[in-house]
Amino acid sequence: MDSWVDGQPADALSLKDRGLAYGDGLFETIAVRSGQPVLLDRHLMRLADGCARLAIATDLELVRHELLSYAAAMGEGVLKLILTRGDGLRGYAPDPAAQGRRILQGNPPAAYPATHAEHGIRLFPCNTRLSTQPLLAGLKHLNRLEQVLARAEWQDSEHAEGLMLDQTGRVVEGVYSNIFLVRDGGLITPDLKRCGVAGVMRAEILFQAESLAIPTQIADISLEQLQWADEVFVCNSVYGVWPVRACAALSWPVGPLTRKLQTIARALLDA
Ligand SMILES: C=C(O[C@@H]1C=C(C(=O)O)C=C[C@H]1N)C(=O)O
Ligand SMILES: Cc1ncc(COP(=O)(O)O)c(C=O)c1O
By Cβ atoms counted within 10 A, which residue in 87, 126, 164, 172 is the most buried? Predict the structure, then answer.
C-alpha cells in the first residue's frame, strides 16, 4: 500500500525534514487486524505525551482519523506512523510555528517464528548500554541509535531479542520490547523514568494484571533480581508476549503467569 504524507499518497519526503536531520520526531508501530489499529487509544496517548514534551504541534484528532482510514484500507499488517516536527532550516532551533508532518507506512504482518511464542526465546546480553535522559525517557522518539548498535551485536537466529541495561547495570528493556519478571505470583517491570520506551503492550499488561488482581510493581531491577525471577517475558505491540527461557548463563521456565498474559495479549492482537 502507498505511504501517505499529511494525508496524501506520497513516495518522497522533503530533504529539509527535521526527523531526518535530527531525529526530531516520534513514531508508533501499530498492529492492524481486520482493518482496525490495535490498542489505538494507548498509541495515541503515548504520542500525545511525546508531542507535549517535545512541543511538536499536531492535530491528534486528525492523526486518529488518518490512522483509522489507513488501517481500514490496509486490512492486516503493521502500520507505522512517523510524526516529525516538519521542515527546518540549518541549525537546531525549532520553528515555534512549525506543524508536525504525518507519515504513514503500511507493512505486511510480522513473520516471527511461531516457536518464539510457543517455546520462548533466548535474550542476547547486549553490551550497548542505554543513556540516562529523563527528558526523553518513556517516549518513542526517533533517536534510536542505541537500539541500532544493540541490534547489530548479534546476527544468529538463536537470539530473538537482546537485553539492555542502563549505565549502572540496571535492567531496562529489550531492544524492541519491554521486559517483565514474575516473582511470587506478582509482576515487576523496570521503572522507565531515566531511559527506555514506555511500551503500549507494557501498559496494557499492567492494566490487565491489575484487573485480575495480580500484584504489579514498577521498580529498578538489578541483574541479581533477574536471576531470581520465577518467570521472565518480553512484550511489544506487534508480537504480544514472548516467554524468555534464557539470557547468557541464566535460565527460567515458561510459567503459568506468562502463559496467562500471553493468551490475553494474543486475544487483543487476533481480534
Ligand atoms: C522498530 C520498529 O518498531 C518496533 C519493532 C517491533 C518489532 O519488530 O516487532 C514492534 C514494535 C515496535 N515498537 C519499527 O521500525 O517499526
Ligand atoms: C526500545 C523499545 N522498547 C519497547 C518497545 C515496545 O513498545 P510497544 O509495546 O509500544 O510496541 C519498543 C517497540 O519497538 C522499543 O523500540
Answer: 164
